[in-house]
Amino acid sequence: MNFSQNNLKNQSSPYLLQHANNPIHWQTWDENSLREAQQQNKLLIISIGYTACHWCHVMEKEVFEKQEVAHLMNEHFISIKVDREEHPDVDQIYMLALQIMTRQGGWPLNIVALPNGKPIWGATYLPEKQWLGSLHQLKDLYQKDPDQMEEYALQLEKGILSTQLIDEPKDKEFKRYHLQNAMNKWQQNFDYKNGRDKGAPKFMMPNQLQFLLRYGFQENNKEVLNYVKLTLYKIAQGGIHDVVGGGFSRYSVDEKWHIPHFEKMLYDNAQLISLYAQAYQVFKDEYFKEIATKTIAFIESDLKSDDDLYFASYDADSQNKKGEQEEGAFYTWTKKELQNLLKEDFLLFSDIFNINDTGYWENGKYVFIQTQNLQKIAQNYHLEEFQLKEKIDSCLLTLKKERNNRPQPLLDHKCLTSWNALTISSFIDTYKITANEEYLSSALTTARALWDNLFDEKLYKNYVEGNRQIIGTLEDYALVIKAFLQLYQITFEDSWLKKSQKLIDIAFAEFYDEKENLFYLASKSNEQLFAHLFEVHDNVIPSSNAIMCNNLFMIGKITNQEKYIEIAKNMLHKYKNSFHETPSNYSEWMNTYLNISHPFYHLSFGKECIENKKFFLEEYLPNAILTPHVPVNLKQYDFRESDISNQMLLCQENSCKRPSNKNIEILKQIDFN
């Protein structure tokens, strides 16, 4: 390989291809690049970002396209570009290093490391002058006193590894006070006016809200439930929600959910679909069902590939009328544009979506936000509510047709395994609340496409135009297993259970550390990282270890394999004392904790009453699994399995209720608290 040139042009990642024409001799993250740095004894520059990252684009334009910068980097460093969505393991370890060094994080993530990959310096976005100054200092110091740098790298490595250490609780019981203490602390930070946590920026964090929904439901905690409902309304009515084309942006820069960073990510939208579907099950609010189905329509129309998988994201930036890249150009409107398009409906639309000081953003542009009750607006305009909704739909359709003539934001056309697994789950959750077979069909089609294209004795991470290149991480295994276990409970097809079991076996072989009773994010055989880390804290996607913990509990219950339930309990035991420290970091762990601290059921269906399953799918049953087989050896009961072929059997632990073929009778036997 020629390291005296930019080697990104043959990559499949759109993010890497964006940098393929930089004058910098960018290399890919692989053994060859790391070996070259050691052979030449040059410092590494590891620059990590993703396609939809606004500040990544800014730094490329202002820094990486400059000849002076390229000359310095090419002469004295080996420079590696990394797509964080392809290499979350690389992103994880260097982001942790940055946070330890600077107490901040974000992207672009720029690390300078020793030739062996151990970090010594880091920063996010820097303008050209600061970037050049920092690199000159680091180059000179490495030439004059490499021992000092190596000592610093060693201390930083110890700091990184120390984050993995935890004092295990002495008590082995799973008491409810661990959750209660966590909730008491977490609620102190609730924003009861705008939803989610206090302050800005605001991230939606669907996994946290899913836990809070379940906790509020099972504990019958009206305060928490009302808070979740408020949050879901505020998100859906804010500028972060694209009411014209569907879908949600990544986060809001303000506390009111008004002005988003406009990139749209598949993982956010898939998780939000599941969240709104589950919220519908709890609240029976038709608005939540509408949000779920409209967001699915966006995914289907804008992100679906010809391979029946789903693309990763849309960029925040697109061309404005001057032909310049501008954040939000595709999504924002001037008042004049709206007046010309909506004509006599403009005043009504303006009242609904605040084409006024409330909805104003900058440079004459508006971002839609709803702050008034539609029923009240309907009364003011002497309309029935259904008539008002018809007018809204008509206006939005007019705007969508006009907007489709604008230059589209850049599409990141890679299909990521873990994000497609989340999408499968979103189809399943929407099928539950609609009984629309098309959603189940989409879930099955996506799952088969994922298995056919991204599994070959192991999971691959990405799929781009028929090519798969990168080995999957624990996140991929955890989320695919979760989706397949959900599919099994919907279809009762053994193939999905067998696939889940196969993936669990591989995950233990590739990622499991028996001593720590946790799974590494990267395969134990991966020698490119200077250290192997566990992913424990939730982020915009839940912790892969927490998801695996829940998977093991679920498959243990479904297949009567107590060993998996014990491993799940041991994993949970490690972190239960940490819940109250930073509760929002442990929402997925706490979700699994509810399985143990509260009643959990196995509902099995006899052969002749399989159709009864649909009734229970519509219900919110977070503390139950559904299977076509009984959970325990029936010899301890007074009936044989053939006796319940036309009935349902509800069991908890090793105790079963009286069989019944009446749905309501079974439902009443389920205790949530």
Automatic annotation (TrEMBL):
<dbReference type="Pfam" id="PF03190">
    <property type="entry name" value="Thioredox_DsbH"/>
</dbReference>
<feature type="domain" description="Spermatogenesis-associated protein 20-like TRX">
    <location>
        <begin position="5"/>
        <end position="156"/>
    </location>
</feature>
<dbReference type="InterPro" id="IPR004879">
    <property type="entry name" value="Ssp411-like_TRX"/>
</dbReference>
<dbReference type="InterPro" id="IPR008928">
    <property type="entry name" value="6-hairpin_glycosidase_sf"/>
</dbReference>
<dbReference type="GO" id="GO:0005975">
    <property type="term" value="P:carbohydrate metabolic process"/>
</dbReference>
<dbReference type="InterPro" id="IPR024705">
    <property type="entry name" value="Ssp411"/>
</dbReference>
<dbReference type="InterPro" id="IPR036249">
    <property type="entry name" value="Thioredoxin-like_sf"/>
</dbReference>
<protein>
    <recommendedName>
        <fullName>Spermatogenesis-associated protein 20-like TRX domain-containing protein</fullName>
    </recommendedName>
</protein>
